[in-house]
Amino acid sequence: MATGSEVQVRGHLTKELNHQTISLLRPLERCIVIPKRFNDIFATIAETIWVIAGRNDLSFLNHYLPRAPEFSDDGMTWRAGYGPRLRSWAGIDQLDRVRRILMEDPSSRRAVLSIFDPAVDFEESKDIPCTNWLHFTVRDGSLDLCIAVRSNDLMWGFSGINTFEWSVLHEMMAYWLGTKVGTVTYFISSLHLYERHFERAQQILAGRGHSPYSSYPAEVQFNTTFAELPSILERWFEIEFSIREGISKPQEINDFPDPLLRDYLFMLEAYWTQRRAPHGRFEPLLAQVGDRALATAGISYFSKGQNNVENYGPEIIGASVPDKNDLIRHLTSLHSVKDAMYGNSWKRRGEQISIMANVARKIDRLVLFRPGAPSSTESALDTAMDLLVYAIKYMTYLRDVLGESPPPGVETWSDGLAGFNRTIEDLPDVPSVRSYAQATAVVTEAFQKLEQSFECSAGVGERQPLVWALAVDAWALLWAMVSEGPLEAKRLIDLGDDGIFP
């Protein structure tokens, strides 16, 4: 959020916009895939079906949202979970009532689903429903949806789960009524962003217009009657359990009758396949997902710094491995922006205190990086790019110290851009691609040799080939990561200067 008032709420700083109205003309385009957003599409799928099935138990949700108990009063349920309120409020299935109202009178203005319960929701609790009510109307053959929300966290709420879950319900209701899916309009009293998300929000805004799934039009897939829904959902959860336990049979998913819910099962199968074995072959599963945007959201999740996954399947997402010129162009552009920002601060305190410290920091991040660990604002791919940039800059520094003649018209190798741009051109052609783990081990060993040269009191001339070896190995590491995650690499290059440096 670029604007908004700063407000302290329950000890947390937020930026807040009051009384917002947001209309989505194409609500079925429900997958958000933009740089730095890092949406967990698998948790979103799980929570959505859990709500529509009328559940609020954490025994299921914990498998996809490990932090769910933090928002529970008893550690076993979400007291204000939407599921039971929508499907069994005092014994009333509100989905069924709304469906019947609009079937009998399509012009009705009474098709309201209530969620906020004044009998219990004025009490102190960790879990008070954020969405208050949903209102369906049919006009000109289209089903429109209005949603009133008292409090909406922009990152975890509105764009994290709400736009997805309510669009699925919207699609289902339209199918039951035989209408087209119309627009959805949100009336939000407090639309806010927590301080922990301020920096990432700025990065997301910088990546607007770079969604790789925009060429995939949304399609209506759901085709289960309301009468069949209970048995279909029961079967869906049975298969989900077998997927999670690693005992599912491929034919179970292939034979699932509803295309939308079948897609979601393929997605969860891909998720658990990758989670059980980081090198698991999830591409064939994502290739069977009918919704290409959904499959791309899965690829985006797997590629958010989890570069240990082999060959992200260009045939699935249309992403090809960039060539050498693409990477060099991106790295020189990245360097030029950072040089304009930081100037010569990278070498101000000399070789050991400034330059080696920066290189060591990048090496440590790569060594400590673990696939599946919570992502920070700097991905492993960002780190690998920064490491290579620092190694090249280190070379320019040593060239100056050793008195090598700089390019014509340039005063020094290490000041400005020309020396860097000339040095990076000396990198070899595309190296033999190693795995991420192998490439990380090699580049770490190269750094250790460089580090030991200081302990042995080696001279600058002896250290220069060690620095160049580090640069070449960092280049090989970068290629290993690009080959394993072409979508992430393509997104960085298409976005431009998105790396974090220093």
UniProtKB/TrEMBL annotation:
Assigned keywords, A-Z: Methyltransferase, Transferase
Boundaries of every Thymidylate synthase/dCMP hydroxymethylase domain copy: 43-206
Statement: the UniProt record of this protein carries the keyword Lyase: no
Matches recorded under InterPro entries: Thymidate_synth/dCMP_Mease (IPR045097), Thymidate_synth/dCMP_Mease_dom (IPR023451), Thymidate_synth/dCMP_Mease_sf (IPR036926)
Domain of life: Bacteria
Keyword Transferase recorded: yes
PANTHER family assigned: THYMIDYLATE SYNTHASE 1
Protein name in UniProt: Thymidylate synthase
Organism per entry: Paenarthrobacter nicotinovorans
